[in-house]
């Protein structure tokens, strides 16, 4: 004869799989479409970045007649130059009417000062609140700075002075990061997606198996079964954990497949999320499902209705993501002590796997053990709560 907990677990899983709405939300929309949506946004962002790099930067030059050679040099440097005369007030109006517009105004005394070897000022107008205008303005300033350095070097040579005297220190920058490590800068949010979708996988089962049964009036009949109440709730927690594990497996596979279509190689990056890494991510995150199932069941046991449980559990689901957010802001480095913090330890382990720099085996085992222990504690607490008569409402 099967143990009571196993019978209850199978019953809850069977009912969840029969409910198409719950099934779609738990195992389709979250695990499959959430990472695909994330990857799609990333792909569109990278495509836009490539297009921006390839296109000539447009710039409008006012009073170009004061510096014809300078304007020609800007054209030869790859800028798409448009000539248009106007006052400063006109320029501000142009920028207000045109998104991403950058205007370079040449003062009337530019040629005179340039010929005399004095600093010749120019003014660049752009909307700093417009990201595209900011990028274009930086590109124009970089081009002008390059032309200024070239002219300065030629002036020194004309006076018999080597331009290198102005370069007392030369800096050579060497990037020692690996392509996988650089890709982690873009894909760092994937660990957050994995953990959140894992919780979402068992959310509706945890609500329906506790607050849902109380609202329908079937919980009292269930608790009259000649079996220990702890066994009944352990079965419900196990069912929620299995649903979370299924969601974890699906989201891991969908990420591994979707990343194949992201052109990270264009930027010198590599998505280190092949089948081997995906399997290890699944295994190290698996214990987190026990924490999520126990935590959601405990919280749902205090609610009176399905709607109330949804409200509370929606907030509770954000709790495991708080350590990840704090770690991202503070640039926390992995340590043995941090392996004791659920969700954060999984995040750090996943980051290490994606970077191609796996953490020490002892640290990974510490993360697994601490998560399993906390999951067992939440399960035990849920069992204790269901021994109360007040659980019937």
Based on the model shown, name its key terms.
393 residues; 4-stranded mixed sheet; 4 strands
Verbal overview:
- With about 400 residues, this protein is mostly helical.
- The protein contains 15 helices and four strands.
- The chain has helices spanning about 5-20, 20-55, 70-75, 90-95, 110-115, 130-160, 180-185, 190-215, 220-225, 230-260, 275-300, 305-315, 320-330, 345-355, 360-385, and strands at about 60, 80-85, 100-105, 125.
- A four-stranded mixed sheet has the order 2-1-3-4, with helices on both faces.
- Strand 1 (about 60), helix 3 and strand 2 form a beta-alpha-beta unit.
- Helix 2 (about 20-55) packs antiparallel against helix 8 (about 190-215).
- The longest helix is centred in the N-terminal third of the chain and has 35 residues, at about 20-55.
- It is elongated and about 100 Å long.
- The two termini are about 30 Å apart.
- The model has no long low-confidence stretch (mean pLDDT about 85).
């Amino acid at each position: 004869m099967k143990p009571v907990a196993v019978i209850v677990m199978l019953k809850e899983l069977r009912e969840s799989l029969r409910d198409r709405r719950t099934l779609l939300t738990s195992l389709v929309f979250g695990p499959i479409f959430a990472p695909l949506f994330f990857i799609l946004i990333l792909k569109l962002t990278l495509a836009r970045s490539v297009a921006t790099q390839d296109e000539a930067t447009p710039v409008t030059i006012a009073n170009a007649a004061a510096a014809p050679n300078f304007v020609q040099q800007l054209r030869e440097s790859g800028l798409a130059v448009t000539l248009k005369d106007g006052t400063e007030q006109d320029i501000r109006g142009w920028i207000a009417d045109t998104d991403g517009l950058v205007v370079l105004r040449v003062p009337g005394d530019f040629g005179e000062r340039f010929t005399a070897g004095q600093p010749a000022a120019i003014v660049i107008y752009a909307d700093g609140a417009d990201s595209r205008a900011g990028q274009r303005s930086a590109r124009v300033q970089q081009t002008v700075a390059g032309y200024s350095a070239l002219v300065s070097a030629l002036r020194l040579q004309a006076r018999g002075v080597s331009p290198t005297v102005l370069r007392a220190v030369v800096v050579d920058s060497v990037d020692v990061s690996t392509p996988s490590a650089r890709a982690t800068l873009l894909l760092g949010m994937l660990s957050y997606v994995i953990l959140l979708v894992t919780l979402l996988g068992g959310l509706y089962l945890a609500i329906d198996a506790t607050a849902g049964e109380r609202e329908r009036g079937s919980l009292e009949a269930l608790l009259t079964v000649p079996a220990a109440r702890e066994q009944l709730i352990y079965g419900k927690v196990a069912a929620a954990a299995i649903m979370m594990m299924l969601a974890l497996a699906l989201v891991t596979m969908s990420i591994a497949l979707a990343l194949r279509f992201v052109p990270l190689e264009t930027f010198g990056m590599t998505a280190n999320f092949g089948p081997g890494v995906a399997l290890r991510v699944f295994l190290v995150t698996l214990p987190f499902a026990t924490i999520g199932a126990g935590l959601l069941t405990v919280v749902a046991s205090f609610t009176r209705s399905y709607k109330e449980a949804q409200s509370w559990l929606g907030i509770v689901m954000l709790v495991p993501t708080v350590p990840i957010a704090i770690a991202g802001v503070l640039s926390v480095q992995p340590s043995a002590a941090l392996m004791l913090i659920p969700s954060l330890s999984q995040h750090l382990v996943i980051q290490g796997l994606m970077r191609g720099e796996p953490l020490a085996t002892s640290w990974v085992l510490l993360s697994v053990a601490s998560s399993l222990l906390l999951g067992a504690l939440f399960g035990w607490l849920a069992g204790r709560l269901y021994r109360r008569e007040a659980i019937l409402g």
